[in-house]
Amino acid sequence: MSAGSLTQSGKDRGVGFWRGVTWTVLLLAGALYMVDPLAPFSYSVAPFCFPAAGDPGADSFVQEEVNGPTTILYVSATSDEATSNEAAARLFDMDTEPVADGTLLDKWRRVESNIAKDLDVMAQCQEGKPCPAPAQRLIDLSLEGADRDGRARVGMINRAVDLAISPVSDETQWGVADHWSGPLETLHSSSGDCEDYAIVKYAALLAAGLSKDAVKIVVLRNRLPNEEHAVVAVRVDDQWLILDNRTLTLVRDTDVVRAIPEYVLDDQGVRRFVWSSRNRKAAG
Q1: Helix count (H) and strand count (E) of the chain?
Q2: Which residues contact 28 (CB under 8 A, 6 or more apart)?
Q3: Both 107 and 247 in a single domain?
Q4: From CA 38, how far away is CA 121, in angstroms rounded?
Q5: Helices 103-126 and 194-207: angle between axes, nearest 10 degrees
Q6: What is the distance in angstroms between the CA of the first residue and the CA of the last residue of the chain?
């Protein structure tokens, strides 16, 4: 064999070696990313949410401060069946306490009133009375996956709402830092930010027949990026699923990472998550 052939063979072996090293590094990096990703979810649509409290120009979406860790990794681990059943009844396995006043409660009361009025309009449509186009759209959204049950139907409604609304900030759409729209107002413009997605999903799921105690809006504090973010929590088959306009994937509450649950909004009003309850359970 000639010297040139030996040289080329050596080069080929060298290239093969470094190619193998490169693939090994990439596979290890991918595995680590799946275990602890840098962001809470993979985004399917552009995010438009609340700026974090204290950021320049931020509206006072949440006035109350939350004492707790700056970041948390939620894991689902229970010691026995009784503990598991008890934890399943609570979002993020945390206790809550009522919020008696404040900006968030005022906004939610107005939105609840709008939701009730919009659901009445839907009922009139179904009785054969004149039906505004946004009301018919909400009916159609609530009927998504009507031939399916449980998680499959919730996933269909979640997907349909995400595709029905284009993401846009309140500043761009309304000229203000924070504006909460009723379901029909959002569907009339076909645009909104994270809480508008959540409000439409909340109304559509109630119209689809889910009980009020199984559907909630949750305010999270995301860490990457640092912002307030509204999502919907739905209880299906004794599991709380998080519906986020940033992804079409339904994520269990106990599998959410790098986000801090702050408030839950439902037919009982507004409640604050109590961090001491989670810390006490973790210590136990």
Answers
A1: 9, 10
A2: none
A3: yes
A4: 43
A5: 40
A6: 72
Angle, CA 200 vertex, CA 124 and CA 189 arms, to 5°: 85
pLDDT in tens, 230-254: 999 999 999 999 999 999 999 999 9
Total residue count of the chain as it appears in this document: 284
Check whether residue 147 and residue 23 sit in a common domain.
Answer: no
3-state secondary structure of 217: strand
17 pLDDT band, cuts 50/70/90, is low
Q: 97 lies in a domain? A: yes
Distance CA 49, CA 33 (A): 25
Say if CB 118 and CB 138 are below 8 A apart. yes
CA-based torsion, 107, 205, 198, 268: positive or negative: positive
Within-domain flag for 143:
yes
**CATH number, domain containing residue 66:** 3.10.620.30
Q: Which helix (H) or strand (E) holds 164?
A: helix 150-164
Structure pTM?
A: 0.73
Residue 38: which residues within 8 A CB-CB, separation 6 or more?
Answer: 224
Residue 67 shares a structural domain with residue 182: yes
Report in angstroms the alpha-carbon separations of 269 from 98, 120, 272: 8, 20, 10
Using alpha carbons only, give the angle 183, 235, 116 rounded to the nearest 5 degrees: 25
With H, G, I as helix, E, B as strand and everything else as coil, classify residue 232: strand
Q: Which domain holds residue 131?
A: 50-283
Return all residues near 131 (Cβ < 8 A) that are at least 6 apart: 121, 124, 125, 139
Count of structural domains, the chain: 2
